[in-house]
Design brief:
Distance between the termini: 58 Å
Strand order of the largest sheet: 7-6-3-8-12-9-13
Low-confidence stretches: 1-22, 488-496
Number of helices: 17
Mean pLDDT: 84
Number of strands: 19
Radius of gyration: 26 Å
Largest sheet: 7 strands, mixed
Amino acid sequence: MCGARLGCCAPSSSRLSTHVSSAFGMTYHDTPLRTVGVVLAGGAGTRVGLDIPKQLLKIAGKPILEHAVAAMDAAPEIDEVIVVMHPDFLDEAKEIVSSGPYRKVSQVLAGGAIRSDTTRIAIDALGRDECNVLLHDAVRPLVSARTIRETVNALRTYQAVDVAFPSADTIIAVDDGVISEIPPRHRLWRGQTPQGFRLSVIRKAYELAGQDPDFHATDDCGVVLKYLPEVPIKVVDGSEDNIKVTHPVDVFIADKLFQLTSTSVPQPRSRADYAEHLRGRTLVVFGGSYGIGRSVVDIARGCGADVFSFSRSENGCHIENGDDVAGALATAYENTGRVDYVVITAGLLARGNLAENDEAVIQKMIEVNYVAPVMIARLALPYLQRSRGQLLMYTSSSYTRGRAGYSIYSSTKAAVVNLTQALAEEWGTLGVRVNCINPERTGTPMRTKAFGEEPPDSLLDADAVALTSLDVLISGLTGQVVDVRRLDPAEPAGLRPVAEAARLARSLAEKGRETAP
């Protein structure tokens, strides 16, 4: 039991709150109550047409369930997490939780036959002491930290909170195949989760529902609305990305959203922070002679890492040649006894329409941009498995849509994204992480050779991209495509500005050049 084991709903002395309230009216807590996030994964998911629940399907290298659990576990507003899973797949859910870094998960429980039964099981597990509870559909893997935060904040004033998003479509009511009503669209919102409640409120609503022989519900706010109509339900703005994976096409859409959505990467703030993570680690960079690769080499060295750089121009290492790659990895391992990170920044971009390109040039681009990452990945796996390390690759903003004039380059970069996600899924049980950096247009010799001189203020700084690369290496991410942008008007407060990143990167790179062998 959650309450007996961890006191999950009993506010500690440091979290006691004062409030003014009526029986089930609005309240205000000047200190927040303890908050428990409940991930509801009791459904069988038959509509996706597979023999496993949809919450166990993998997206971006992880089961959908794990994405939902990770979001709750990472939210600072959440004190504890409970997972309620379909009873036939309880062991799989327990394995996901136990194998991940989820400190807040206290229980994995068997769910009920229908959604309302699963919610009742969660309510019973929460004990009798008052707390806030967020009920979240496990099949909404893209719930944002902002949504969780605003839902919890709203519970300081309201006892029930829904997350919803305005409908962009006209909604029609249909009776016997004929339109009977077209409600005003401005009043129609699409309900999402999490839905937040004071525990006493959602428990009372379900107690009353249990006395109704005609009770049926798929939405917990609907239970409160029907059986406790005196309780106002606050609406928090949801997100277009917070989709529910219900049908086969939703799996595809969610996977693409993970690809296209920038990932918030933990960002150390000082040289000492980076040194703490990188000192004593071995980093192998293929393509480290110039551009982003050179910056990764210099910055990592400046942070105390043992860095080995290999490229055709630097030391005759042809990354499309298996013997060269195997020798490079063996050299790093023989010198340090480990390989923690393998970074592939090498790339080849030759412009020109496909029909006009020289066949040898086309073959070389495919070999360098795609065949080489495949080969390096295969040869690096034994080393990375020993160190539980990471493979980091690079794509291009052109991967989302093929570009005329460099079709081979953009299509190979799209292949690298798919390779990243596939390997993250294959290697997840081996403890090896795989990620991909997607930089905006960056000032590198390769770009200058292909496109000529461009205004410097229109391009990303290679050092800033390299610093984000190190952020990803020392993070716990896997299966992610991490965007790096020169200017992002939607950048969340608290993330390091690009200019600041560039200054820190240059400082670290200079230190690395001073210590280079």
